[in-house]
Amino acid sequence: MKKSLITVAALLLAAIPGCAQETTATHAEHQMAAAPSSVSQDWAKKRVDQSPRHHEWVNLKSGNRVVRAFVVYPEVKGKAAGVVVIHEIFGMSDWVQMEADEVAETGYIAIAPDLLSGMGPNGGGTSSLPDGTAVGKAISDLPPDQITADLNAAADYVAKLPAANGKVAVAGFCWGGTQSFRFATNRPTLSAAFVFYGTGPETAEAAAAIKAPVYGFYAGNDARVGATVPKTVEMMKAAAKNYEPVTYDGAGHGFMRAGDTPPPPADADQKVKDAYAGNKKARDEAWTRWKGLLKKL
What's the mean pLDDT in 17-43? Predict the structure, then answer.
């Protein structure tokens, strides 16, 4: 686990090891972290604000719930596939919105639901919660069936847009990576699932339910998640499922976000510089791979 950001708060944010799990016990690993709702991500917000692509917030009906979602449209001539972008355990953040914008830049309609919609004070979402501890606990407490219903609402919405071709993939990061894999066990019509440093299904029955190809993106310096990959490979192979994991050496957990951040200052500790370089390299290589896989949708 390595530190790679340029402020103390951001350093804490990047260094958190436990994003992939859903349990209350794992939430303890996040107690000292500040979520994006309380940590500035001006570099990400600036990128979104300056984007030439059309973005909008929409309200999705999910049972008796209303889920807020951030939608970004690509500038393409024909109809495009949709990608559901699942946020980290830090909830809806500027970086998640930037990531959705980057997906749209590649040529796909991105939709990023705030899975904490209605779970905060006065029915608010991520931004209504006071700090990272509250955000992490709220996400850890989300009912699994509610998560699935909200993701289905997002997938249904993006699939039916006039600009969409009906195909939908899912991508998730950290906690969202685990949810991306889990969503593949619950929605057989997915075109693909992209799992960024998340864990796989825990039962043979769950693996057997997967219809879409699953592509994993893992960090070499993330033994907690990396140690689960061999079992997932075995389980997916036994179920005759398409699962292609790749591990990026020199990267830490959360490298997609950490590699997007501004570089550390010239007088930063060499370990910080090395960690940033490893995360940046992994982020760039993962994006190249991801774009190639998206073209197969």
Answer: 45
Query: Cα(45)–Cα(184) distance, rounded to whole angstroms?
Result: 30
Using DSSP's 3-state secondary structure scheme, residue 238 falls into helix
Q: Is 74 left (phi over 0), alpha (psi -120 to 50) or beta?
A: beta
The 10s digit of each residue's pLDDT in 118-168 is: 999 999 999 999 999 999 999 999 999 999 999 999 999 999 999 999 999
Question: What number of residues does the chain have?
Answer: 297
Quote the pTM value. 0.89
Phi-psi domain of 257 (left: phi exceeds 0; alpha: psi -120 through 50; beta: other): alpha
Output the six-digit token pair for 91.
């909830």
User: Strand order in 55-62's β-sheet?
Assistant: 55-62, 65-72, 109-113, 80-86, 164-173, 192-196, 214-221, 243-252
Closest-CA residue to 69 (of 82, 50, 85, 49): 85
Average pLDDT, the chain: 89
Q: Two tokens at 58?
A: 């929409």
